[in-house]
């Protein structure tokens, strides 16, 4: 039996705030991500509110989703917002050329997305079309969404049912402009980006001053640093005429391109490979942050990891253009490790969006007609809700390693925070699929008397939920009391635990 591992939490050295926006979601027009997953239409027998699935909204509300990025992804750079407004019967269908040439019915457009945002009680993160659109098109979109009804665009919005201006918290200035968003040289993108940063304005009076819309420029593709350097240099040399609040980083856990590792039925070698790759997110953020520090030592610019997650082989028998994959206990571990990394980089990472919310890649929810299931990743997001806007506390531990073949991984990972209500929460991941771990939380100067919260584990790393067995991977309550002044927590193999410490 291995020795219990002390995890030292320093409550006297509070770190930065873990911005709740790191728990953001991403909903692209891709496969069943929107159509079927969120939107079923008002005439559907599937219970809905104005066409939006009630079961999906109810489930997502429990995650306290801070923001949703929409309409893409690659889709965003071919999206023309005028196709998605006005009476539904008059909206012209188009082709979703990025994702399987599916027919895009345009029945889910600006108003439907903002209704979804309202129903969820979240914030909008809009990605505008820089690849195939124009500055005027994007500027008109924001004019339509946020302008007063005394303007033609604001009047048109009111005529379409929403006199109040919409709130747009984040604006993405293009998507992957180094790839599907136009294959632009970084210098060319930086020049384009300045035009969008200047002319795409938010007129909502409620978004002046501290609530101002934040503009997120395209940043690095994984480890490549050209965009980071060029966009940050442009920002450093900016004039009064434009500004930025963030740059994006996209990085998936893939296991080699094109994605070929199966989402179910895999063995320990695949598990260890993908978990190791996930841990590379830490170094990636550190690398880009160091470049950003050269131009922005005050860390004004946010590094927004607005696409992350496991990207695996399409589930057998599904349309490969729809990016449908299952979600296992391995995905739960991947999610928890990424969240811990973002929290530890809270001084620079203040926005992140998992790809994607429903039915696409590492999803929270899978649907099949009227059926819905919650994935292991969903449960991790719900268990971590006390981390939203909490203060990071340094947590140090030495737990040794877990080895699988050539791959060596830390045995556990831990992150601690002081929540907004002053309570201390500890998140622990046991990466080892075979051995439990015993943890002794030590909070400087204070002895915890008890711990309570939830633990997520499963029979195997590849265990997953199905429509017939939706609770194979589901959290369970966990609690522990101090004995002889010492509080010990037992972490099952391959598990994610989030507990509150009581003193
Ligand atoms: O999330 C799927 C795709 O991955 C997005 O559309 C694109 O931005 C990225 O390459």
Describe the model.
One of its GO terms (biological process) is polysaccharide catabolic process. It catalyses: Hydrolysis of terminal non-reducing alpha-L-arabinofuranoside residues in alpha-L-arabinosides. Its EC number is 3.2.1.55. This protein has 503 residues and is of the alpha/beta class. The protein folds into two domains: 5-11 and 393-502, Golgi alpha-mannosidase II (Immunoglobulin-like); 20-389, Glycosidases (TIM Barrel). It is built from nine helices and 26 strands. Strand 3 (48-49) and strand 4 form a beta hairpin. The model has no long low-confidence stretch (mean pLDDT 97). It binds alpha-L-arabinofuranose. The site of alpha-L-arabinofuranose has 10 residues, from loops.
Helical residue percent band: 10-25%
Instruction: Output the CATH homologous superfamily of the largest domain.
Output: Glycosidases
Strand order of the largest sheet: 2-5-8-9-10-11-12-13
Q: Return residue spans where pLDDT drops below 50 for at least 5 consecutive residues.
A: none
In short:
By secondary structure, this protein is α/β, with parallel strands linked by helices.
Task: Set out the fold topology.
Blueprint: E1 5-9, E2 24-26, E3 48-49, E4 52-53, H1 54-61, E5 67-70, E6 94-96, E7 102-104, H2 110-120, E8 123-128, H3 135-146, H4 152-159, E9 170-173, H5 186-199, E10 214-217, H6 226-236, E11 246-253, H7 268-295, E12 302-310, H8 329-344, E13 351-355, E14 365-368, E15 371-374, H9 376-383, E16 391-393, E17 395-397, E18 401-404, E19 407-410, E20 412-418, E21 424-430, E22 437-443, E23 450-456, E24 476-481, E25 489-491, E26 495-502
Parallel strand pairs: 1-22, 2-5, 2-13, 5-8, 8-9, 9-10, 10-11, 11-12, 12-13
Antiparallel strand pairs: 1-17, 3-4, 6-7, 14-15, 16-20, 18-19, 20-21, 21-26, 22-25, 23-24, 23-26
Helix pairs in contact: 3-4, 5-6, 6-7, 7-8, 8-9
Bound molecules: alpha-L-arabinofuranose.
Alpha-L-arabinofuranose binds next to loops.
């Amino acid at each position: 039996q291995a020795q219990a591992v002390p995890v030292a939490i320093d409550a006297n050295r509070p770190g930065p705030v873990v911005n709740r926006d790191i728990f953001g979601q991403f909903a692209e027009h891709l496969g069943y991500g929107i159509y079927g997953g969120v939107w079923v239409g008002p005439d559907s027998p599937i219970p809905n509110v104005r066409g939006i699935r009630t079961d999906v909204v109810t489930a997502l509300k429990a995650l306290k989703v801070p923001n949703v990025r929409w309409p893409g992804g690659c889709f965003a750079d071919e999206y023309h917002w005028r196709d998605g407004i006005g009476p539904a019967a008059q909206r012209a269908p188009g082709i979703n050329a990025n994702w399987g040439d599916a027919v895009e019915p345009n029945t889910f457009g600006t108003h439907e997305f903002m209704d979804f945002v309202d129903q969820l009680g979240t914030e909008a993160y809009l990605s505008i079309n820089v690849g195939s659109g124009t500055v005027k098109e994007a500027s008109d979109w924001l004019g339509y969404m946020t302008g007063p009804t005394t303007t033609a665009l604001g009047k048109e919005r009111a005529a379409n049912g929403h006199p109040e201006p919409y709130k747009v918290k984040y604006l993405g200035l293009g998507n992957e402009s180094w790839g599907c968003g136009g294959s632009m040289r970084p210098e060319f993108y930086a020049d384009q980006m300045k035009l969008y940063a200047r002319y795409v304005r938010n007129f909502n009076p409620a978004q002046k001053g501290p609530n101002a819309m934040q503009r997120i420029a395209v940043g690095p593709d994984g480890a490549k640093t050209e965009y980071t350097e060029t966009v940050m240099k442009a920002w450093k040399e900016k004039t009064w005429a434009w500004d930025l609040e963030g740059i994006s980083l996209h990085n998936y856990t893939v296991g080699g391109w094109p994605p070929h590792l199966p989402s179910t039925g895999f063995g320990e070698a695949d598990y260890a490979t993908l978990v190791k790759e996930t841990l590379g997110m830490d170094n990636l953020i550190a690398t880009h942050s160091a470049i950003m520090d050269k131009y922005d030592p005050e860390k004004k610019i946010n590094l927004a990891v607005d696409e992350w997650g496991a990207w695996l082989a399409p589930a057998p028998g599904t349309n490969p253009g729809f990016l449908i994959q299952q979600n296992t206990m391995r995905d739960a571990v991947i999610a928890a490790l990424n969240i811990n990394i973002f929290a530890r980089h809270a001084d620079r990472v203040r926005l992140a969006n998992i790809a994607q919310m429903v039915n696409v890649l590492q999803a929270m929810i899978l649907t099949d007609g009227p059926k819905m299931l919650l994935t292991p990743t969903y449960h991790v997001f719900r268990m971590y809700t006390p981390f939203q806007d909490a203060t990071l506390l340094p947590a140090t531990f030495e737990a040794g390693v877990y080895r699988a073949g050539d791959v060596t991984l830390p045995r556990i990972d831990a992150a601690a925070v002081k929540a907004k209500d002053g309570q201390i929460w500890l998140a622990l991941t046991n990466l080892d699929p075979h051995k439990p771990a015993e943890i002794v939380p030590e909070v400087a100067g204070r002895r915890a008397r008890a711990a309570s919260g939830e633990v997520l584990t499963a029979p195997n790393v590849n265990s997953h939920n199905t429509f017939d067995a939706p609770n194979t991977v589901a959290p369970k309550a966990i609690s522990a009391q101090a004995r002889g002044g010492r509080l010990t927590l037992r972490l099952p193999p391959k598990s994610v635990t989030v507990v509150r410490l009581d003193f």
